[in-house]
């Protein structure tokens, strides 16, 4: 009998045998041991050539088949106390086939649950006055269970489009204070990075706040000229 | 106050499958477990009857609140689509064996499949589809495996009884699905 | 199919406050925003009238589904609050995720952690370890979070580049399924 199977990988010897039988449209109970053994052995030779993974299970099955084939030659159906040498294999295959079909059933339903959406559990805890003293970076990097690490390694799943927040006055005051403390004195222009109207206004307001707080003094030579900012010592 | 409404709020807040027994512990009341079950079944039916946006599903002896699956297409638009899980043939075969023969050991699974199944078992555990169900009292104390609530949820089953008879898979009906 | 029921399932699944405008975008229907508002108000009243376990509350022009306040004592029993003097595991986990994945939204954090993380995020904001970093341009305009300078200070880092590499793990995912 000619057979022609594309060289695909099988889950194991039973998977391969089962496939050979169904490709040949043979009733499992009527397996021709000689034929199926030849086909099986031819197949695993092909696997070897193609460098497909040939596990010990495939090889063991091959020797089991060869043994069965020789025992079958001596087997006489007429003698009642003789057990058909194929019996054990046939039974194994029938059980395997049942579960293989059952797995097809599961496969057909494996996205069934995706149609339902569940809420996430609420998390309730109360934190009293928190002491931030004992924190260290190892606590952060070691906290991940493996699954979280996997998540983090993956790229974020949707493209990020940012709408930048407006610069807050508080942030800008901090920034101006930081610059003045560092430089001692500097000009207004040096504080402006993006030159948006918003940035200029917020920066100007920050300066007013800092003057009020007596942290800086300012000087302007002429109208519309750059403002010089100095730290109050 | 009404027990049914309290149960509804517990189902909503708990967000995981919860058993009538656990609900009884919370209520701390004279109500029996079977009455709690009745109240939940009443709610289930009521939601279903009116085709509400919310439904209660049963997972073995537990219950969980979720969206009505009819509205999946809308919900998908707001929530990130679930990661599609596609189990390999090896994992599906192993899962089918465990589903029907649980509790079962690795060796028994391997006898049926004819191949080593460690990797498939690990995959199933990682995906919370199976879990350990104790150990067999024989040499080596092999681990027994059984399916989880998550298994029922993923495959849209109320209980293991919803699985088709194993016998039915004897027929040559691969095309049936 | 009925718009009111679809809205109910959206409110349930979204779990955070959502505006009628966002709901309209999901429905993609001829329905007006004011009709959506009416449907929600109808649901609100119905829940309230029957003193159901679930209620819908209004926050500004947004709506959110939550448990009925009356049953809070029961809910507290299932979701036992933990008292802690240092950052809880929950807050640390959340902080770690933000540190490594910033900027990131609450929903993304929750997807990774598998639980609602509002409380943890609030704690981190209160302690000035994280702050808002703009908003994402999608439904609900979710806030993006990033770590603060204070975060660097508390953990003794000069910059985010000093965060330790996450311990490498085997990339077995391809075979996993």
Automatic annotation (TrEMBL), chain A:
Pfam families: SMC_ScpA
Cellular component, GO annotation: cytoplasm
Signal sequence extent: none
HAMAP family for this protein: ScpA
Primary localisation category: cytoplasm
Subunit comment: Component of a cohesin-like complex composed of ScpA, ScpB and the Smc homodimer, in which ScpA and ScpB bind to the head domain of Smc. The presence of the three proteins is required for the association of the complex with DNA.
Function: Participates in chromosomal partition during cell division. May act via the formation of a condensin-like complex containing Smc and ScpB that pull DNA away from mid-cell into both cell halves.
Nucleotidyltransferase keyword on record: no
Name of the protein in question: Segregation and condensation protein A
Subcellular location: Cytoplasm
Keywords on record: Cell cycle, Cell division, Chromosome partition, Cytoplasm
Single biological process term from Gene Ontology: DNA replication
Species per Swiss-Prot/TrEMBL record: Alkalithermobacter thermoalcaliphilus JW-YL-7 = DSM 7308
Superkingdom to which the source organism belongs: Bacteria
Similarity field: Belongs to the ScpA family.
UniProtKB/TrEMBL annotation, chains B, C:
Any matching Pfam family: SMC_ScpB
NCBIfam families registered for this protein in UniProt: SMC-Scp complex subunit ScpB (TIGR00281)
Protein name: Segregation and condensation protein B
One annotated Gene Ontology cellular component of this protein: cytoplasm
Keywords for this protein: Cell cycle, Cell division, Chromosome partition, Cytoplasm
UniProt subunit comment: Homodimer. Homodimerization may be required to stabilize the binding of ScpA to the Smc head domains. Component of a cohesin-like complex composed of ScpA, ScpB and the Smc homodimer, in which ScpA and ScpB bind to the head domain of Smc. The presence of the three proteins is required for the association of the complex with DNA.
BP term (GO), one: cell division
Compartment(s): Cytoplasm
Family per record: Belongs to the ScpB family.
Source organism of the structure: Alkalithermobacter thermoalcaliphilus JW-YL-7 = DSM 7308
The protein's role, per its UniProt record: Participates in chromosomal partition during cell division. May act via the formation of a condensin-like complex containing Smc and ScpA that pull DNA away from mid-cell into both cell halves.
């Amino acid at each position: 009998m000619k057979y022609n199977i594309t060289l695909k990988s099988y889950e194991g010897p039973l998977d391969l045998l089962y496939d050979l039988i169904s490709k040949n449209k043979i009733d499992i109970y009527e397996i021709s041991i000689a034929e199926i053994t030849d086909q099986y052995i031819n197949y695993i030779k092909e696997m070897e050539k193609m460098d497909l993974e040939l596990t010990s299970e495939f090889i063991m099955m091959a020797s089991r088949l060869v043994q069965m084939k020789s025992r079958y030659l001596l087997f006489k159906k007429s003698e009642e106390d003789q057990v058909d040498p194929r019996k054990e294999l046939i039974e194994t295959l029938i059980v395997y086939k049942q579960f293989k079909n059952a797995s097809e059933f599961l496969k057909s339903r494996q996205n069934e649950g995706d149609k339902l959406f569940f809420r996430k559990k609420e998390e309730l805890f109360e934190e009293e006055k928190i002491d931030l003293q004992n924190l260290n970076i190892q606590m952060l990097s070691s906290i991940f269970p493996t699954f979280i690490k996997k998540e983090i390694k993956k790229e974020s799943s949707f493209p990020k489009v940012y709408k930048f927040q407006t610069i807050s006055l508080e942030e800008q005051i901090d920034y101006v204070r930081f610059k003045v403390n560092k430089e001692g004195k500097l000009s207004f222009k040096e504080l402006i990075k993006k030159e948006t109207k918003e940035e200029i206004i917020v920066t100007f307001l920050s300066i007013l706040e800092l003057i009020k707080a007596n942290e800086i003094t300012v000087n302007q030579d002429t109208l519309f000229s750059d403002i010089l900012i100095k730290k109050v010592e | 106050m009404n027990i049914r409404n309290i149960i509804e709020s517990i189902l909503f807040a708990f967000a995981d499958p919860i058993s009538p027994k656990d609900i009884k512990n919370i209520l701390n009341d004279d109500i029996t477990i079977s009455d709690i079950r009745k109240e939940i079944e009443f709610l289930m039916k009521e939601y279903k009857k009116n085709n509400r946006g919310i439904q209660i599903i049963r997972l073995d002896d537990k219950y969980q609140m979720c969206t009505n699956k009819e509205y999946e297409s809308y919900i998908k638009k707001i929530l990130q689509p679930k990661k599609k899980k596609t189990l390999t043939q090896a994992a599906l075969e192993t899962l089918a064996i465990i589903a029907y023969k649980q509790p079962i050991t690795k060796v028994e699974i391997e006898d049926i499949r004819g191949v080593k199944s460690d990797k498939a078992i690990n995959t199933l555990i990682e995906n919370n589809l199976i879990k350990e169900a104790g150990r067999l009292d024989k040499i080596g104390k092999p681990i027994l495996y059984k399916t989880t609530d998550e298994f029922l949820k993923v495959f849209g089953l109320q209980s293991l009884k919803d699985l088709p008879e194993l016998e039915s898979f004897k027929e040559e009906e691969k095309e049936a699905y």
